[in-house]
Each structure stands twice: as C-alpha cells, then as structure tokens.
TrEMBL record:
Family: Belongs to the IFRD family.
Residue ranges constituting the Interferon-related developmental regulator C-terminal domain according to the UniProt record: 377-429
Protein name (record): Interferon-related developmental regulator 1-like
Pfam families: IFRD, IFRD_C
Organism: Durio zibethinus
Record region (Disordered): 1-29
Lineage summary: Eukaryota, Viridiplantae, Streptophyta, Embryophyta, Tracheophyta
Entry-linked InterPro entries: ARM-like (IPR011989), ARM-type_fold (IPR016024), IFRD (IPR039777), Interferon-rel_develop_reg_C (IPR006921), Interferon-rel_develop_reg_N (IPR007701)
Boundaries of every Interferon-related developmental regulator N-terminal domain copy: 21-332
Gene that encodes it: LOC111276944
C-alpha cells in the first residue's frame, strides 16, 4: 500500500514542472475544465428535458400538455435557461398561447405562468415586446371565457408581468390596467350582463393593477380617474374578505405616495385663483375628495386596530393590523415602511410603497424561484437596485441551499468534479511537502 502511494506521488512529480506554481496552474486548469465539462453536461440534460417538454405541447391530450407545462415552469424556477430560450423562444410562446386559447382552466393557468416566467427570463427588449403584443388579445379573450378564480388570477399575473417587462411606453401599460379594471368595474350597457367578481378575483385585480401602477406617471391620469379609483378602493376597505382589504390598503397607500393628493391640491389652488366661476359643481367635487380622504383615514385607523372576529385566523389578522398601521403612519406623517431581506448573504431593501408592492408581487409570482432569479436575473437586480456578491462554486462563500444540496449528493456531477479537484490539490500539497522535506534534509547534511 505504501509502495503504491509512493509510486503515485512519484508519477505526479514526473508529470509536473520543477516550478510549483506551474504545477498548481496546470492542474487547476485541468480540474476547472473538468468542472465546466460536468456543468455543461448538467445544463445539456436540462435543455434536452425542456426540448422534450416543448415537443409535448403539440400533443392533443390536455393532461400531457399540462405535465409538460409543469416541467417547464419548474425548470424556469430553478434555472434561467437562456440558451434554450434563444432557440425555442417563439415556439414556446405560441404553444403557450395555443394552450390559453383551447385548454382547460388548469392548462390556461399553467400556460399563463409559463409566459410570465419567459418574459422575466428574456428581460426587456424585442422578445419581451413581442410577448406583450402577441399575448394581449388571447389573454383578453380568456378573461371572458370563464369565471374560475384561479384561472383569472393566473391570467392577471401573466398580463401584469409581461406588461411590466415588455411595455415600451405608458400607453401600453395603461391599456393593460384598463383591461384589469374592467373585470371589477364594468361600464354597464343595455346589452351587458355582468357577473359579480369573487373576492379572490378582486384581490388579484387590485394586486396586479397596483403592480403596474408603480410604473406609471401620476400626472398622466386625470383627476376624474383618480377619483374613480380611490372611491372604489375605499369601498373595498369595508368588505368582509381580509385579502381584499389588504390589497386595497396597499393600493391606496401607493396612490397617495404617487401624489394624487397633490393633483387635488392643484385643483384647489385653481379655484382660489379665480376659476371658482366655473360653478359650485367643481367646488363640490373637491369637497367630496377631501371628505373621501378623511373617510379613508378613519377606515385605515379602524382596520389597524381591528379586534379578531369569530373564526378569524390570528396570522391574517396580524398581517392586516401591521399593514394598516404602516398605512396610517404614512397618511398621517409621511413615513413609508422600510424592509430588508437577506438573500444569499446580500441585503435587498425597500423604502417606498412602490418598491414594496413590486417586491411582494414578484415574490408571490416567482414563489420558490425568487431567490434564483434575484441572484442571477439582471433585470430584476436593476428593478430593485440589488447587486449580489459574486459566488464561487468551489468556495464556501455565498453558496445557495440548492448548490449545497448538489455538493452533498454523492452522485452529483459537480460533486464528483469537486472531489477530483480536491484530491488533486491534496496530492500536489503532499508533493510540495516531500520536496520541501528533501531540501531541508539536504541542508542538514
């Protein structure tokens, strides 16, 4: 055994250069090459699986397409398959749109989520713009094809995300927001039969609408529209469903943060500058707005201290109280809530309602894939001003839990490559020690 070990050490010494730094360099390069090769093999297998899933979207059986969409969603959550997207972007988009046109509610939900993930992966640019342009019509038709809450919520999330990423101007964003708003505030006509939206749909509409509102210029919207929005959202604060109240409270805080009150104040100044002659109707409108703000303030104050009712979940109640305490502090003193979350040893912070709403929406949409995207998705990093530290796959600094699991698996290709590298490094270290020992012995004699 000792002889074989000595022969192995001698073989390494014969293969190496006299310069230890050269040995280190060449061995590291070979090992790094092996790691890259293993990584590429893993990525190749992932892309092959994605290719097969896209092919399955052409199948006639709906359950087969649903399974394929689930595989694609999982891949987009655990990885950002840019190479796959470059080659299959158009095919994936149009197969998903076909699923939305002809599929079941479950298939529509899965396809909607896939399109949203596709937009986030490609980031702003021509592809994201194409996603928005090609999807608007199918999504609008899908809203009218049924009233299942889960399907509608998925369609809303999809429309919000693709508009957020692919909208080149505010007209496009405003169009998407109007599509959303019509689901809860339909303009009644003589031949229109409306269905009262469920609490889940109202929550989804307000959440998606607020998410897009964070990107809008407040001064583009007329005071009439602001009044319509605020009046409706104020009415939602009195609804029985707690999720509706919370979504409405966040939306109102955002509206006030964006300066709608300043627009109303500007109207008041115009009255005092001699425009009162337009009649009492304008003055009454302004008084109504001031009264509405006072009403909202009282509603927020009550909700921040609401006692738990029968069957009220304590966690949900605490979430409501905490939110409306923040809204109340903002309305009374102008302080926005500040948040901070640790992601892979990096801190992501928010200091405005706009940032908080964007963060909460994208965290919910991405689910378990949020950490992966925020660490590797340049677009999301730009959105939140988040700059992660560089992570070293071979070191211990800032390794994600998924990477740690990959290393711990004895069958992992990355783990095998890492083991080989460490073994070689140990061998080289032993060689250097033997050489140093031989030098020392020669000095003694």
């Amino acid at each position: 055994m000792g002889k074989r070990k000595t022969q192995r050490k001698n073989a390494v010494m014969l293969d190496s250069d006299d310069d230890n730094s050269s040995v280190n360099s060449s061995s590291t390069l070979r090992s790094d090459g092996m790691l890259v090769s293993c990584t590429e093999e893993v990525e190749y297998n992932k892309d092959t699986l994605l290719d097969e899933a896209v092919d399955a979207l052409f199948e006639k059986r709906g359950s087969t397409r649903e399974k394929a969409l689930a595989v694609i969603i999982d891949a987009f959550n655990s990885n950002l398959p840019h190479q796959f997207v470059e080659t299959k972007f158009a095919t994936l988009l149009h197969r998903c749109l076909n699923c939305i046109k002809k599929g079941s509610s479950k298939e529509i939900s899965l396809a909607s989520r896939t399109i949203g993930l596709l937009a986030l992966t490609v980031g702003p640019g021509d592809n994201a713009q194409e996603i928005l342009e090609e999807s608007i019509s199918p999504l609008s038709l899908a809203f009218k094809s049924g009233s299942e809450s889960s399907k509608t919520a998925s369609l809303l999330d999809c429309l919000a995300v693709i508009t957020f990423v692919g909208g080149n101007d505010q007209d496009e964003t405003e169009k998407s927001m109007q599509i959303m708003w019509q689901l809860v505030q339909t303009k009644l006509g003589s031949n229109i039969i409306t269905v009262k939206p469920s609490a889940a749909v109202i929550t989804a509409v307000v959440s998606a609408w607020s998410f897009l509102l964070t990107t809008m210029d407040v001064w583009r919207l007329s005071p009439k529209l602001w009044l319509e929005y605020i009046t409706y959202l104020s009415s939602l604060l009195g609804k029985d469903d707690r999720s509706v109240r919370i979504a409405a409270g966040e939306a109102l805080a955002l509206i006030f943060e964006m300066g709608s009150l300043e627009k109303f104040a500007a109207e008041a100044r115009s009255f005092s500058d001699g425009l009162i002659s337009q009649g009492n109707k304008s003055k009454e409108g302004f008084s109504h707005k001031l009264g509405l703000k006072g009403k909202i303030l009282n509603q927020v104050r009550d909700l921040s201290a609401e006692a738990g009712g029968k069957g009220s979940a304590k966690k949900d109640l605490n979430n409501q109280r905490n939110l409306f305490k923040d809204v109340l502090e903002f309305l009374e003193y102008g302080y926005s809530p500040e948040t901070s979350m640790n992601i892979g040893g990096n801190s992501l912070q928010t200091s405005t309602w706009s940032q908080l709403i964007q963060l909460n929406f994208l965290k919910r949409f991405l689910g378990g894939g949020f950490t992966k995207h925020i660490l590797d998705n340049g677009f999301l990093q730009d959105v939140f001003g988040f700059t992660p530290k560089r992570r070293n796959l071979l070191g211990s600094e800032h390794i994600s839990n998924s990477e740690k699991r990959m290393y711990k698996s004895p069958n992992s290709a990355l783990n095998k490559a890492r083991t080989l590298l460490l073994n070689k490094q140990r061998m080289l270290s032993e060689v250097r020690n033997i050489g140093q020992f031989a030098v020392n012995v020669g000095d003694e004699y």
